[in-house]
Amino acid sequence: MSLLLASTILGIDWIKIVIHLVVFAVLMTGLSLLLYKPIVKFIKKRQDTIQAGLDEGVRKQQEADQLKAEYDEKLAQLDQELVDKRKAAQEEMETYRQEQKALADKEIQAAKAKSLKEIEQDRENAVKGLKDEVVDIALKLTEELLEKEISEEDNSRLIEQCLNEWSEHHD
């Protein structure tokens, strides 16, 4: 009984405390055996899921970086192609412009030559017309001066003489 008395001395029941401690230890051991593995398995599975997500994120980031690099390379190639095509178009345009200029120069030269030829032809026609008029005038003047009929031979000689004199003054 003294043990019983001693255990209740300060109002603390040491037997209940020991019983509670034993029950708590048994409960903890039982819970550890029953719940530790599933909790560790759940935590491990959660860690694996998170790590897989992180790995997937890293892989997708690397894929995105690779696609961006490919895109940048293709964009640079397209820019270079654009520069090359622009340069080729400018060269083609310059060649076309030079060809058109040469063609226009040829047309101008041809038109100029044609105009000069027409002018020369008009001049020759005018000279011929003037010669014919001069011959007619000379013939009339000669007829009036001589008041007689001029023979064909005299007529030709007078015409030639008038033409020669006229040509010397107008050429």
The total domain count is: 1
**Outline type:** rod-shaped
Q: Major beta sheet, specifics?
A: none
Classify the secondary structure makeup into a structural class: mainly alpha
- SSE succession: HHH
Q: If you compute it from the alpha carbons, what radius of gyration comes out, rounded to the nearest whole angstrom?
A: 64 Å
Number of strands: 0
Q: Provide mean pLDDT, rounded.
A: 84
β-sheet strand percentage: under 5%
Low-confidence stretches: none
Report how far apart the termini are: 172 Å
Q: Percentage of helical residues?
A: over 70%
Number of helices: 3
Structure report:
This protein starts with a helix and ends with a helix. It is built from three helices and no strands. The mean pLDDT is 84. By secondary structure, the protein is mainly α. It is rod-shaped, with a radius of gyration of 64 Å. It has one domain (2-170).
